């Protein structure tokens, strides 16, 4: 009778031990869980005693020891903070094994520990989901802003033909630049009347000298 009551839950020990070992390996510092090899050996001896019990009274007392062993494993699982490793919960095996204890285990103490453990896991998962949702909303908002900015950049880089057409037409009407003409050299100033009279007197004197020289 006692063995039939416990038999459906014996497999939960394996999943709990694996989760504790995985969480402990990822944890450093004072929160690291102490190795539980000695505890597991003692628990195995209790299971063997239950399987070999022929007296119902002895079997019930052994079941109480096994209830204590399960409670200790669940408390250690809670201290290990397996919720910090989402893969352990996402696999579903650990959650299913622990959830079965809450639904059908005969020990009120074990069921109470399991209910508290499940509430903690649910709260941790909901917090992670809220954080992930907020991050996703922030990314979507940032993506929309980046997309709008990119569209404005395209509009600036590629103006419409209506804007460029008047500018092109006006550019065609601008006269071409011609080389600058240089001014001709200033004409020499004509001699004054006094200068012309003086030159004429000198020429007449030279002519008279020439004629006088011929008649000598």
Task: Give structural notes.
With 216 residues, the protein is mainly α. The chain has a domain at 2-134. The protein is 75% helix and 0% strand. The chain has helices spanning 2-6, 12-25, 37-52, 56-79, 86-90, 93-104, 108-157, 161-173, 193-214.
Q: Spans with pLDDT under 50 lasting ≥5 residues?
A: none
The count of strands amounts to 0
Profile the largest sheet: none
What does the average pLDDT come to? Answer: 77
Strand content: under 5%
Query: What order do the SSEs take from the amino end to the carboxyl end, as H and E?
Result: HHHHHHHHH
Total number of helices: 9
Helix content: over 70%
Give the structural class: mainly alpha
Question: What would you call the shape?
Answer: rod-shaped
Compute the separation of the termini in Å: 185 Å
Organism: Eragrostis curvula (weeping love grass)
Protein name: TFIIS N-terminal domain-containing protein
């Amino acid at each position: 009778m006692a063995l039939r009551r416990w038999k459906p839950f014996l497999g939960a020990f394996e999943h709990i031990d694996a989760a504790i070992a995985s969480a402990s390996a990822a944890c450093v510092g004072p929160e690291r869980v102490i190795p539980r090899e000695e505890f597991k050996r003692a628990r195995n001896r209790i299971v063997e005693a239950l399987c070999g019990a022929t007296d119902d009274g002895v079997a019930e007392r052994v079941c109480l020891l096994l209830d204590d062993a399960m409670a200790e494993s669940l408390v250690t699982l809670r201290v290990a903070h397996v919720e910090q490793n989402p893969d352990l919960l996402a696999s579903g095996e650990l959650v299913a094994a622990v959830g079965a204890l809450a639904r059908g285990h005969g020990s009120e103490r074990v069921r109470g520990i399991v209910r508290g453990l499940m509430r903690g896991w649910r709260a941790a998962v909901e917090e992670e989901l809220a954080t992930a949702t907020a991050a996703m909303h922030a990314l979507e908002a940032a993506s929309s802003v980046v997309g709008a900015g990119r569209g404005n950049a395209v509009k600036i880089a590629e103006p419409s033909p209506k804007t460029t057409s008047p500018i092109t037409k006006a550019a065609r009407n601008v006269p071409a630049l011609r080389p600058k003409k240089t001014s001709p050299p200033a004409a020499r100033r004509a001699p004054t009347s006094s200068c012309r009279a003086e030159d004429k007197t000198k020429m007449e004197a030279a002519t008279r000298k020439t004629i006088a020289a011929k008649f000598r």
